[in-house]
Write a sequence for this structure.
């Protein structure tokens, strides 16, 4: 899942004005995956790489949390990231793909995936919140695109630089199921996914909530808790670290083609092949998003903060987690970001 598709990389290459081999230049100061430019697509906090940008202040700083409900009644509620001027109050969400397959239409956020004939797979959409969050509750009313095998819909809270993430994901081969998962500091541990059976997620809207605090995270469906992750249960005795996501992040939504990804584990997880014709369009819909910030709205002092969970303190719970015992290869979930 921590993977950028070749098609997306090509889009970046064409869009950028200079190649960042070591450092970007004064005129294209912000670095993103090896390329440099000066707009939000490259400078937005957590997309921008401070290490290869022009200087320490090139990347934009995190905006901090804004409590609000977005109903997508205005086209300004989601815009192409290239046109974003840096004011999170004016635009709640940013579409970070080019071409842009996301829009506000009929009071909904519409995420489309169309057929890319050159690569024989779908080209989807990803949107990110223009403000950041560190602890709080996020509720999204979602109707998924799980109408065909291989189509993946996602609702995530993620820090791209550190790899901390909480998510809901829906795969086309199991439309009557939602999967919850989390990742800590780019560790690709695929044993932490938990499925939850429900009605067909593509047939109607449901409310999905991630309630993230410093001590625990709760996933809810239609206001019913379906999973709780306690920080105490994430203690890793070998490293003396609580492997619990704590770094500032953004809220995101996406649609992508897992069935034609070319990665066997991903295809088996999502279902395959994804059925396509030249006119096929898969749509994931978000009716509303409510962000409730915990505490103040000020961002962290550092845009690339590191977790402070390293400790010699022993956990209060032994955290007997369940792990896969079937001996099979864990699914390699490759999510293109833009």
């Amino acid at each position: 899942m921590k993977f950028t598709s070749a098609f997306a990389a090509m889009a970046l290459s064409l869009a950028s004005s200079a190649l960042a081999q070591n450092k970007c230049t004064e005129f294209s100061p912000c670095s993103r995956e090896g390329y440099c430019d000066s707009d939000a697509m490259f400078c937005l906090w957590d997309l921008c790489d401070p290490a290869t940008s022009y200087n320490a202040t090139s990347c934009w700083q995190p905006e901090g949390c804004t409590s609000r409900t977005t109903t997508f009644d205005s086209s300004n509620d989601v815009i192409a990231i290239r046109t974003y001027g840096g004011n999170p109050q004016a635009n709640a969400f940013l579409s970070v793909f080019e071409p842009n397959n996301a829009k506000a239409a009929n009071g909904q956020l519409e995420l489309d995936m169309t057929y890319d004939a050159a690569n024989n797979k779908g080209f989807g959409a990803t949107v990110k919140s223009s403000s950041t969050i560190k602890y709080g509750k996020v509720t999204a009313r979602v109707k998924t695109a799980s109408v065909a095998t291989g189509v993946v819909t996602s609702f995530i809270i993620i820090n791209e630089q550190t790899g901390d993430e909480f998510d809901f994901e829906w795969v086309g081969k199991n439309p009557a199921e939602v999967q919850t998962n989390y990742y800590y500091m780019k560790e690709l541990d695929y044993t932490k996914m938990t499925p939850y059976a429900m009605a067909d997620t593509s047939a109607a809207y449901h409310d999905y909530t991630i309630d993230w605090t410093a001590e625990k995270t709760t996933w809810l469906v239609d206001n019913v808790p379906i999973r709780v992750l306690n920080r105490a249960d994430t203690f890793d005795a070998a490293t003396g670290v609580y492997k619990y996501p704590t770094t500032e992040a953004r809220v995101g939504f996406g649609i992508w083609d897992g069935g034609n990804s070319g990665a066997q584990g991903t295809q088996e997880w999502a279902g395959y092949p994804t059925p396509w014709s030249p006119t096929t369009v898969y749509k994931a819909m978000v009716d509303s998003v409510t962000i409730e910030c915990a505490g103040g709205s000020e961002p962290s002092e550092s845009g690339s903060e590191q977790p402070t969970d390293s400790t010699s303190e022993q956990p209060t719970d032994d955290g007997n987690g369940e792990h896969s015992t079937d001996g099979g290869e864990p699914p390699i979930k490759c999510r293109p970001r833009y």
Q: What stands out?
A: The chain is about 5% helix and 35% strand. The CA atoms of residues 259 and 273 lie 5 Å apart. The radius of gyration is 19 Å.
